[in-house]
Amino acid sequence: MKQRIKEWCYFVFPAAGVLFYLAYLHRSSIDMVYSDYIRLINSYLPDVWDPEKFFVPDLLTRIPVNYLERGINVELFGYSVAFDRVMGVLAFGLSALAIGIYARRQRIGLFWYGAAMVIMFSLNKWEMLYNGTGWAHFLAFAFFFFNYVLLNRVYEVRNGRKTVNGGRISGRSWRRMLIGLAVLPAVITIGVAGPYCAIYTMTLLLSYGFIALRNRFFMYQVLKEHDPDWKRDRRAAAIGVIDSRMCALTDRQIICLLAAAVWPLLLYLWSNSQAVYEHAGTVDTPLLTAFLQEPKFFIKFFLKSFASAVFGVELISRHMAELPDMVWYLLGLLVLAAYFFALWMNFYYRISECTILPLMLLAGGGMNHLLILVSRYIFMPNADYGMSSRYALQYQIGILGILLTFALAAQKQREKKPGQAVRLLAAAVTAVFLAGNLITTAEEFSYGIHRKNYNMGNREILLNFEQFSDEELETTLEYHKPGCREALQILKDHQWNIFREP
Questions:
Q1: Cα gap 396→239, rounded to integer Å
Q2: Which conformational region is residue 160 in: left (phi greater than 0), alpha (psi within -120 to 50 degrees), or beta?
Q3: How many CA atoms lie within 13 A of 363 on its CB side?
Q4: In whole angstroms, what is the distance from residue 274 CA to residue 291 CA?
Q5: Residue 157 per-residue DSSP state
Q6: 284, 316, 341, 381: least CB-packed within 10 angstroms?
Q7: Does residue 239 sit in helix, strand or coil?
């Protein structure tokens, strides 16, 4: 009975997280367009099914799945922001489910799994939840996680088609998994990933490279032990080499999977080259020039971005503004050190011999910090920009990698491998992550009612937008560009969103 309850918890926790997110949205939001919705309304409505708006050169940057979801939203829900938000929450629930499937398979303890779920469903990403236009980003990460879990499943299969747990994989199941790995990158990159495809693809490439190098290392090790003359003909000697530590993926299969991951990214990059981006309040200084001029800014930006994985920037601005910036630099250093600590644990305790998912998440989280630094330095000198809640979704995958590493290392306690100091350090780091995210979540949930009340007042302005100036509408909608009045007129003419009959 106890074991059955534990099994159910791997699925109950994600469901509870989804319900919590829905409760937060009910408490803090109303069904009212704002911000990026103005651009979308003017670009795609009222004829949401117009093929000319779909078949555009920069189609992939606009995320094709958005067109289908937007059409359904208009036809069935009158262009509801609440529908987009719920779709985002459900998609994020799939991400947590993928982690749950992995945790169940690895027999990760409920304490560590619960800690991972607390981090995942933290309200440090409230802005992504609140702005329904980002629902597809949650869906993209769900696809990422399922792809990573599938790759980890393949990684567990050893030569002889045995898994690291001793079970056997049939040839049919093996082929299905390989087909999945070959097809998923195209579906994900072209259909749902959008700008996040770069880190996703790089994570796959690093993983396949790691598998190939690891296989080659053990193959040469076995040959050296059993055949002193193996160097005379490496190719011939390599034939038939089987070692229980080697992944069953062959070099040819790895090359094919690498190609399957790269070509969709190249297609996306071409589509992205056709797009035109506009950023307000940015600088035009090239990256290298900016770094040479203000190297301290890059260090501050980088460290603060890591600190935001513990405390949300809104919590800091509302309740911790008096604290010196040095506090956040030190906190960022702590999180960065936790990355390296988890990386060391993966190899020192040989976790990477059994599972690769924690390494994939660590790599993805670290690369996301670097990507945001090099792509958002244009907002200098604002070093707090990297702490924005819109990036918490990208940062959190690294924290999940850290916690999963700690959980897998904790299993080694039966073998008495981790020393007492290592266990205490892992527990302390986890406590910092949990405390910061719980405080952030509690504060944001409490503050949510103020967001709702504020928007209720704005709703009355939008319902009577003809009586207000363009400047007032831009301020109300948080969209300081032309087009606010035109977008509201489209909604009113078709009785959509706030103008829809109850």
A1: 42
A2: left
A3: 20
A4: 28
A5: E
A6: 284
A7: coil
Q: Rounded distance, CA 296 to CA 425, Å?
A: 30
Determine the Cα angle at 209 with ends 204 and 214, to 5°. Answer: 130
Residue type, 79: Y
Rama region for 478: left / alpha / beta (φ>0; ψ in -120 to 50; rest): left
Task: Please give the structure tokens belonging to residue 80.
Answer: 């509801």
267-288 confidence digits (pLDDT tens):
999 988 876 655 555 566 777 7
Packing angle of the helix pair 357-376, 295-307 (nearest 10 deg): 140
Are 39 and 70 a contacting pair, CB within 8 Å? Answer: no
pLDDT 10s digits, 450-483: 999 999 999 999 999 999 999 999 999 999 889 9
Evaluate whether 293 touches 269 at the Cβ level (below 8 Å). no
Adjacent-strand bridge partners of 230 = none
Q: Alpha-carbon distance 16 to 38, whole Å? A: 33
pLDDT tens sequence across 177-206: 999 999 999 999 999 998 899 999 999 999
| φ, ψ (nearest 5 deg) of residue 34 | -170, 170
